[in-house]
Amino acid sequence: xxxxxxxxxxxxxxxxxxxxxxxxxxxxxxxxxxxxxxxxxxxxxxxxxxxxxxxxxxxxxxxxxxxxxxxxxxxxxxxxxxxxxxxxxxxxxxxxxxxxxxxxxxxxxxxxxxxxxxxxxxxxxxxxxxxxxxxxxxxxxxxxxxxxxxxxxxxxxxxxxxxxxxxxxxxxxxxxxxxxxxxxxxxxxxxxxxxxxxxxxxxxxxxxxxxxxxxxxxxxxxxxxxxxxxxxxxxxxxxxxxxxxxxxxxxxxxxxxxxxxxxxxxxxxxxxxxxxxxxxxxxxxxxxxxxxxxxxxxxxxxxxxxxxxxxxxxxxxxxxxxxx
Length: 324
Known about the structure:
The chain has helices at residues 7-34, 41-50, 56-81, 89-102, 111-117, 122-157, 164-187, 197-206, 209-236, 243-258, 267-279, 286-314, 319-323, and strands spanning 191-192, 195-196. A hairpin with a 2-residue loop joins β1 (191-192) and β2 (195-196). It is an all-alpha fold. A two-stranded antiparallel ribbon has the order 1-2. α4 packs across α12. The protein has one domain.
């Protein structure tokens, strides 16, 4: 049916889809800022003015950290894709930001997989999906490793009302289930995002060791960048926490919010609730925490989405697919 539609009709619907993505992204971002149930927008701006967050030096440094954060994400994508096809840094930038904007409405950015794949011809798309999966697993792995260390230090430092007997039971259950899953994976054709587990394992094995190590290092650098940005904002809001103490809470925070399935446009609410709870142990007031979480969302999600919208509008299918 698609092949029977005229070229002009195809182009019209293609442009309409791109416009719909951009308009929806702008609307929901605006709505989330203005009608935020946890933080009044006027109050948010007023607090930022009082804390002198809008000074030239602070704005420059915060934006620099956001650029630094995204630079390493884009660079990581470039080196991963180079294993199957040479691309420039600008192409990697287009793909990363464009796919980010297109995936805002999907839980845990799952739409990013398809959005990045359409930048390539059909013969590359399965490999691109696997590379994107690998990139996200690496970043998640770093978050889990750092978060587990932070969480262990957090429960050691603060008096949490935890029933350790029940927790131990849960860990035993998880360990048993994990063992069963490993055994099943070895004996069945289990699939992850539509790909057989064995195929994913073989694909990753074929990638060079140096490439995988470099991608992991970039994931750590990126994690260090946005976690330091969070700490810098805590400093701007006059919190008395030392860097080590702040990082215990920050790493725990990123661990908890990373495992919760959310839509990126709305996760500022969930992140705000988690952050308020964790920082309550450090006697930091709720409003300051909510302002910091909202600023992190603006700097690392909203601003990149605005640039990504431009690339969504400029997007064209690869020549091979257009000719089809």
